[in-house]
Amino acid sequence: MKIGIVGCAGRMGRMLSSEVLSTEGCTLSGGTERPGSDAVGRDLGELLGRGTLGAMVGCDAKTLIAGAEAVIDFTSPTATVFHAQLAAETRTVLVVGTTGLSPDDEAALRTAATRTAIVYAPNFSVGVNLLLALTEQAAAILGDDYDIEIVEMHHRMKVDAPSGTALGLGRAAARGRRVAIEDVWCKARDGHTGARPKGEIGFATLRGGDVVGDHTVMFAAEGERIELGHKASSRAVFAKGAVRAARWAQGQPPGLYSMRDVLGL
Ligand code: NAD
């Protein structure tokens, strides 16, 4: 399977390119970067520290997407929407890991997914996707006598907050309680907030160092507290999941899929 990586010089882009190179049955068809990036024009293999590959990092996403069977995109929301439109035109499988998408960006993904298979997940690790399923189940069983708080920590370079995974966990908890997350979420607290409203789902964001991604979902009641958590210690888990998603999506009808579909959870 020919897989291209947009944003191939990013933290995840490098991981993804290496993962494709190491996966049997997959070939790395090329990589792009944003115009002006130092990586443009460099040999992709050399960028990864894996010797010369003969494929140069380009900035022409249209050609990369047209020539690949699947493209993996961990870039920025604006770039992802653009890539989704291109993937729809050529009916190329698209795997999207970019977080911080607005409702309009997500609507653009849904439109593109009427023409090609797109897998979109805030977190491609198997462990986190199990945590999502467990969170939904626990929220359904425990009910709103248990206050739900979601705490996440990431490295100092992360630009969006709360993390896409934390919001995904909030959505899973809200689904379990049969409410819409937008009606109950509190994404940050500051100053005189008053007492906690019943049914609220709260988020707390920590940033620092090189933390790859820690998430804890707390269910706090009078007299007890349940905590479900996940800690990622290597970005390789996301890259492995994304390549698995690309292989799964090949041959699927057009649609917007999640990692839960890929894993059959
Ligand atoms: P990063 O800043 O290191 O990498 C992003 C790369 O995209 C950069 O190299 C940038 O130049 C490139 N880029 C931006 N616009 C582009 C364009 N138009 N064309 C081509 N390349 C372009 O960031 P990162 O840490 O690799 O994270 C990237 C995204 O992936 C973030 O949204 C992050 O939250 C998300 N992420 C998701 C998961 C997951 O499992 N879903 C895991 C880790 C990170």
CATH topology of the largest domain: Rossmann fold
The Cα radius of gyration reads 19 Å
- Structural class determined from secondary elements: alpha/beta
Distance between the termini: 25 Å
Characterize the biggest β-sheet. 7 strands, parallel
Overall mean confidence score, pLDDT? 97
CATH superfamily of the largest domain: NAD(P)-binding Rossmann-like Domain
Major sheet strand order: 3-2-1-4-5-6-12
Low-confidence stretches: none
Beta-strand content = 15-25%
What topology emerges from the helices and strands here?
Elements (H helix, E strand, L loop, with lengths): L1 E5 L4 H12 L4 E6 L11 H4 L9 E2 L2 H6 L3 E4 L3 H14 L2 E4 L6 H10 L4 E4 L5 H17 L4 E8 L9 H14 L3 H4 E2 L14 E7 L5 E9 L2 E9 L3 H14 L5 E3 L1 H5 L2
Parallel strand pairs: 1-2, 1-4, 2-3, 4-5, 5-6, 6-12, 7-9, 8-9
Antiparallel strand pairs: 7-10, 10-11
Helix pairs in contact: 1-9, 4-5, 6-7
Main attributes of the structure:
Rossmann fold, 12 strands, five-stranded mixed sheet, Dihydrodipicolinate Reductase, domain 2, 38% helix, elongated, alpha/beta, 265 residues, 10 helices, binds nicotinamide-adenine-dinucleotide
